[in-house]
Every structure is written in C-alpha cells, then in structure tokens.
UniProtKB/TrEMBL annotation:
CDD domains: ALDH_KGSADH (cd07129). The lineage of its organism: Bacteria, Bacillati, Actinomycetota, Actinomycetes, Pseudonocardiales. Its EC number is 1.2.1.4. It comes from Halosaccharopolyspora lacisalsi. GO terms for molecular function: aldehyde dehydrogenase (NADP+) activity. This is NADP-dependent aldehyde dehydrogenase. The keyword Oxidoreductase applies. Gene3D superfamilies: Aldehyde Dehydrogenase, Chain A, domain 1, Aldehyde Dehydrogenase, Chain A, domain 2. Residues 8-399 form the Aldehyde dehydrogenase domain. Residues 494-509 have a biased composition (Basic and acidic residues).
Length: 509
C-alpha cells in the first residue's frame, strides 16, 4: 500500500486552473479596495476558525507528516497568531506608508507639486506551501497571511507531503473568508507540480512566494523572471546557518554549548531551514567528542517524505566521503509504519578549516540531522570560513558572558562579516525557532533567499506584496480614500507642509 507521504499529487486540469486564476483576477479589485480594518476582520475570522478546528487539523497533520502532536500544536497556534498580527497591522495602517507633500511654490528645488504616496496591492499571489511546516509555512501560513493582508488574492499550491491537512485547512480558509464578505476567488488551492509551474507562467499571477529547496526554488525563480512580463519571486531556498563558538564560551559552558547544538541540529530530524549545519570551534577542545556522544543518544526521527529522505541519504554519503572528513557518528535508517524512514543523526568532523574550504559541498545545506564540525586555529582561519559561506539565514555566535578585551576585539571584526552573510545574527542561543515579531528578519543573501531586502516572517513580510503609487496634483475626488484630504479611513500618514515643516498624523482608534 502506498503511504500518504509517497503519493503522487493529483494534477489540476487546465480548466480548473483557468477558473481559479480568473476568479482571483476578478477578486483583485474588490479585496484590495476593502478598507484595511475590514480585511483585518477577515484575517481574524480565519484565525478563529483554525483554532476551532485545531483538534481535527492536528490529528490529520500528525498522521501525514509524522511530526509530534506537541510540535504541531505550537505550530498551529503560531499560524493563528500570525494572522492576528497581520490583522493588527491592518488596523494600525502604518504599513501603507502614506506620505503627503503639500504644494510648495517656494521649495528649495523649485515649485513642488502636491504629491501623495501610498502602497497598493500588487495583485494575485501564487504561494508554494512548504514540506516541513504543515501549518505555519503552508496553506494558511505566513506567505498566505501577509499576501491576504496586503489585499492580494492568493492561489496556494499545496505540498504533496500533507495533502489532506492542506485540503482541510484550505476549506477552513475559504469558508472564513466567505463568511467575512470576501469576494469569491480571494483564496484558492491547486495541486500538482505542473499546475504550479503553469500558474507561475500565467500573466494573471503578479508575484510568487516559495519555501523549499535551492534546486526547486531556483527553477521557479528563473521562470518568474524570464516571463514576458517578469514578476517578483520571493523564495526561501537553502541555508547552512553556521555557528561559531569562541574559546571563552567553550571554557565557561562547553557542556551547555554541546547539548544545545545537538538539540538544535537534530530538532525535527534536522528539517528546519534554520538548522545550524556547520559548527566552527576553537582548535583542540573536547567539544567534538562530547557532541558525538550526545548525538549518538538521539532517538530516530521520521523524515517528512520519502523524497526528502532519499536526497538526505545521498547528500550525507557525499559529505562523508569528502577528503579529510572523519565520521564521528554515522546515522542509521529505521523502518517506520508510514513507509518513510526514520533516521538518527550524523556528525562529520572536517578537522581544519582548510579541509572545510577544500570541499565546497560541505558548505551547502543538507536537509536533515547532519552537522559538520571544523576547528579554527586563528582569527584569520575563522574569517576565511565565514567568508566562504554563501548567503545564509542566520549566523550564530557563542561568546563569553563577560568577554575580555581580546575577545571583544575579535567579535568586533567577526560581526560585520557575519552580518554581510546573513539576515539574522544570534548570540548565545540557537537559530532554530523564529520569533514572529515586527523586528524579525527571516531572509538573507542568495541562496538563503531570492530577495535579500525582504523577510518571510514577521509583520514586515507584508511589504513583499505591495507597490508604491504617487498621485501628483490629483483632485480630491479622484484620490483613493486613503489619500483624501479629510482622511476618512483615519489612517496614519506623514505630511510635509509648505515651508518644509513635517507632521505625523496618528491613526484614529
């Protein structure tokens, strides 16, 4: 019998895709022109509906993904919290970045016209659900929530790893939107690899959002930007998330560092985009052997799908055979009732930074519970290792609690390099687990993402699906409500009066 995780996803027919894209196109004007506070109520309704059906959804996701109930319970809560956070952003209105420049004939650069600028929805968004988060990065996840919040209809391409969870979630989203007065076509789900490609090529789609592999994401990115009319494609692709341990941190809390690293790189069978895949240690410590001991005690955990398990097996064998690599712990595969293998961790020791740099494959993501350790003997070696890292979501540094002047100097050199390579710098914690907050940056230079200036987590994710428009000397009756002189929606805006004075108008509560 074929298991759920091994099923071939059904392909939508041409006519079904056409109907969904037509409906999304028709819904664009209505959904995008609804007052932000009205869309906020719809997002809150989705969150309420997900919470009400949590038991059913979690049970289905446990069956399909093999992830533990506790993990999925927290993930579903995160999903509804994300929706409510975007609802709060809509009620506040600051995300629109409304700016008014009054006519000023005496402006320093000459006669300044009346200019009014705001952000408007980009249009229908195609969202590709992720394999490793059946809720938070899937049907009702952050990409869907931020696109809907921006005023964009969403066409969701479901992931085949959790089809029934996706179907149930999609029905909840559709029903909640309809009950809130959203137009038909505001949200739809499609299935099938070819359907996902066909939709991306379609001129009715205005942007794409993706979380997954480098190979899959890059192929879709190339399609998006090579269309007759290119569109933005916000892909989160691959990341090794290097972690650095200073000699001060090793002396102070070596055991804690070892335990924390093992817990982080094996969390969820290592199937997190923020898994720390490379650990850089000062030369000559006992940490590699201690990490190996701890990793050897980790119980088998099921991979998400057979395809992911197969690719992980191939990549681990490739890395283990690299020159100079010592296998400290060789993971094993175990049968699982689902038919998808469960695995134990693998720990590889590259020895020197030179060995690490001589095998570029060691600095590429391996999606699963495998980690590579290298030891540095000088600041220059550590800098060389970080300089060789391509774009990554995170860089982690474990330092002494009260670093001496020498360590402060070293960190002062290290941090700018780490910031140039990543979107988030983590100190004295581990990168797995991404806080959903306004200040979060879940992104980074390629191949971590295809859009380095944006985030896919946190309220700033809404910016991806908005575009600015300015109105110059427009009569009030032709302006959108958000830019009317009377400000009927009570939105916050910055006004520059004649004479260069600046005023901030707070939103009406």
């Amino acid at each position: 019998m074929t298991t759920t995780a091994q099923q071939t996803e059904p392909e939508e027919t041409h006519d079904e895709i056409e109907r969904r894209l037509d409906a999304a196109t028709v819904a664009t004007a209505d959904w995008g022109q609804q007052p932000p506070k009205q869309r906020a109520e719809a997002l809150s309704a989705i969150a309420d509906a997900l919470d009400a059906e949590s038991a059913t959804l979690i049970a289905e996701a446990v069956r399909e993904s093999g992830l533990p109930e506790g993990r999925l319970t927290g993930e579903l809560k995160r999903t509804s919290v994300q929706l409510r956070m975007f609802a709060d952003e809509l009620r506040d209105g600051s995300y629109l970045r409304i700016a008014l420049d009054r006519h000023d004939p005496d402006f320093v650069l000459g006669n300044r016209p009346d200019l009014r600028r705001w952000s408007t929805p980009i249009g229908p968004v195609l969202v590709y659900a992720a394999s490793n988060f059946p809720f938070a990065f899937s049907v009702a996840g952050g990409d869907t929530a931020s696109a809907l919040a921006a005023g964009c209809p969403v066409v969701l391409k479901a992931h085949p790893g959790h089809p029934e969870t996706s179907r149930k979630t999609a029905e909840i989203v559709r029903s909640a939107l309809a009950a809130s007065g959203a137009p038909e076509g505001t949200f739809a789900m499609i299935t099938g690899r070819e359907a996902g490609v066909r939709a991306l090529r379609d001129p009715r789609i205005a942007a794409g959002a993706f979380t997954g592999s480098v190979a899959g994401g890059r192929a879709l990115f190339d399609i998006a930007v090579s269309r007759p009319t290119p569109i933005p494609f916000y892909g989160e692709l691959g990341s090794i998330n290097p972690a650095v341990v200073t000699s001060g941190a090793e002396r102070e809390r070596g055991e804690q560092v070892a335990a924390g690293f093992v817990g982080s790189f094996t969390l969820g069978a290592g199937q997190f985009c923020t898994k720390p895949g490379t650990l850089l240690l000062p030369r000559g410590t006992a940490l590699p052997s201690r990490i190996a001991e701890l990793a050897g005690d980790v119980a088998p955990a099921r991979m998400l799908t057979s395809g992911i398990a197969e690719r992980y097996r191939e990549r681990t064998e490739e890395l283990a055979s690299a020159p100079g690599i010592e296998v400290l712990v060789r993971g094993a595969e175990h049968d699982d009732p689902s038919g998808v293998p469960a695995v134990t961790p693998t720990v590889l020791h590259a020895g020197s930074v030179e060995n690490l740099l001589n095998s570029p494959a060691l600095l590429e993501e391996n999606f699963g519970p495998c980690a590579v350790i290298a030891e540095y003997g000088s600041d220059d070696e550590l800098h060389s290792a970080l300089a060789a890292v391509e774009g990554t979501l995170t860089v982690t540094a474990h330092t002494a609690q009260d670093p001496d002047e020498d360590e402060r100097r070293r960190l002062g050199r290290l941090v700018p390099l780490a910031a140039a390579r990543s979107g988030r710098l983590v100190f004295d914690e581990w990168p797995t687990g991404v806080a959903v907050t306004p200040a979060q940056q879940h992104g980074g230079p390629y191949p971590a993402t295809t859009a380095v200036s944006h985030t896919s987590v946190g309220t700033a994710a809404i910016d991806r699906f908005l575009r600015p428009v300015s109105y110059q000397n427009a009569p009030d009756f032709l302006l959108p409500d958000a830019l009317h002189e009377s400000n009927p929606l009570g939105l916050p805006r910055t006004t520059h009066e004649a004479g260069s004075s600046r005023r901030w108008d707070a939103p009406r509560k």
